[in-house]
Amino acid sequence: MDQITDEERKQILESPPVGTFALMTTVIGGMVVAWLFLYYGIFLPRG
Amino acid sequence: MNDAAERKLAISHMWVAFAAFIVACLLGEYQVIERSGFFPALDSNSVYFASVSTHGVLMAFVLTTFFIMGFGYYIATTTLKQPVWNKQLAWIGFWVALTGVVLAAIPLLTGKASVLYTFYPPIVAHASFYIGATLLVVGSWVWCVIMLVMFSQWKKANPGQAVPLAMFATAANAMLWLWTSAGVALEVLFQLIPLSLGWIDTIDPGLARTLFAWTLHPIVYFWLIPAYTAYYVFVPKQAGGYLFSEEMARLAFIVLAVFALPIGFHHLYMDPEQAKGWKLLHAIGTFVVALPTLVTGFTVIASLEIAGRLRGGKGLFGWIGKLPWTNPMTLAVILSLLMLIFGGFGGIVNASYAMNAMVHNTAWVSGHFHLIFAGTTIIMYFAIAYYLWPLLVGKPLFSRTMALVQLWTWFIGMTILTTPWHVLGLLGQPRRISSVVYNNLLTLSWKPYELMMIFGGLILLGSACALIYNLVKTQLAPTTENFSEQIEFAEPLRPVTALPEHLNDLKLWNKIIAVLMAISFGYPILQFFFMETFGSNGWGY
Questions:
Q1: For the domain that residue B276 is a member of, what is the CATH number?
Q2: Residue (of B305, B301, B215, B228) closest to B263 by Cα position
Q3: Residue-range definition of the domain harbouring residue B404
Q4: Using the beta-carbon criterion (under 8 Å), do A1 and B301 form an inter-chain contact?
Q5: Cβ contact B115:B177 at 8 Å
Q6: How many domains does chain B have?
Q7: Is the pTM value of this prediction over 0.90?
Q8: B436-441 long-range CB contacts below 8 Å, 24 or more apart?
Q9: Which residue among B97, B188, B278, B294 is least packed, with the fewest CB closer than 10 Å?
Q10: Is the CB of residue A17 less than 8 Å away from at least one CB of chain B?
Q11: So what's the pLDDT on residue B483?
Q12: Which ipTM was obtained for this model?
């Protein structure tokens, strides 16, 4: 565990969770792509 | 506060839960071996269905109910800092529930209750099975009453103060379970027990399936809420950070409790007894209930991000590597969320009204609920056990390394088990089959996946044994004088000062549930009494 300064600590606690936004966007985007793949790639071709 | 009596109460419940769990794991491995057809000597329809029924009941009803009750008692006493209300009643609830388990186990193990854990009529079991299941539920209702009484008493004694988050979630779960279990209770009391005792000659499967659909979806959230509670109240602290938002956590629990209930018809998309408009209404509700899971995912990951950055993590994703991966609670939540992503995706496919036809009653469904239940949920039960066991027995955990290995192997085993299961579903393998009695190119293509599932099941069985061994060794270790660990709850990033009353109370939400249930289940149930329907004879053992 790295040491951080009080200033860095304050900044972390007051910053928006940008990594979480990026991660959630990636996950939701992946789910949409996977759903579309199943719908158009498997479900519809099966009639 | 001397909480020795509460600790005994909690650990007694949890031991019943984990005893059921290890037996169910053994049966699960037998089932994947039998179903594969690789060992003809094991082929037996009757043994298979007795096993799969016992496995389902032990995992879905016994492990969960006893674990949730034990966890709830300990959460109530540690968060509210007061003894469990009416401990004698709590023990009565425990013994009633345990008696129910024994009563149900006898017909299950003797092949007289091979009705699966969904016990859909017209298959019928020995009356002892239904009476046992009823006693288990009655025992759990005792727990609900105690949790809600403690919640109300504390609120009355501390006006204007926020109920501790863990207790708020536990009380919401108790309220949810009272509503949830009412559907199956009606089915068992007015349909299945009379049929199994010969008081009535026929049963209406449509009504029975509608009542079970009332229970079948929210029960998943009854199982899941303790896992989400650990996400919110233990994980941020264990990871070295803060809970990103307590208000969002409370909102998530409320939306879960409210919208988990009126949506069960997504289990009946292919059933003829309900009209498509009702199914569509429930389908929309099903997508609404995905929202609190997204909120939970966001809040928990944001809490982990804070922890990772406080530990020196930089950049967009650099904080992930800085998390304390050797902390069982932190590791478990990461693995749990990973399984939730894939399990949640499977759930969205199931809920998609049209596309459900592609996976309905296939192996995909079994893969999905194992990933959500045995993966996402149960791995958090393990993490809770690793965290609470030392506190409950007053001794350090026997082996933290073994706990970490156990969590990893459970994740790997579950991935190896459920991925082929999903593929098998897309390849057309039905669920609830004990064997394939014909060979063609399609069924032969299933074989490699069956083999993988046996391997995955073996890893899971080994992992389950490691869990039990670790807990037993912890409990049997010599007492240490200097063990002084206390339960620690996460602090919110911004302290809760002024909380809207509706985020601190359940009365309004209870009324909203009543309205939503009347809308979504009122006519669909009443129609069976308005129109002419035809019953079916029961059949079974």
A1: 1.20.210.10
A2: B215
A3: 4-537
A4: no
A5: no
A6: 1
A7: yes
A8: B436/B37
A9: B294
A10: yes
A11: 85
A12: 0.95
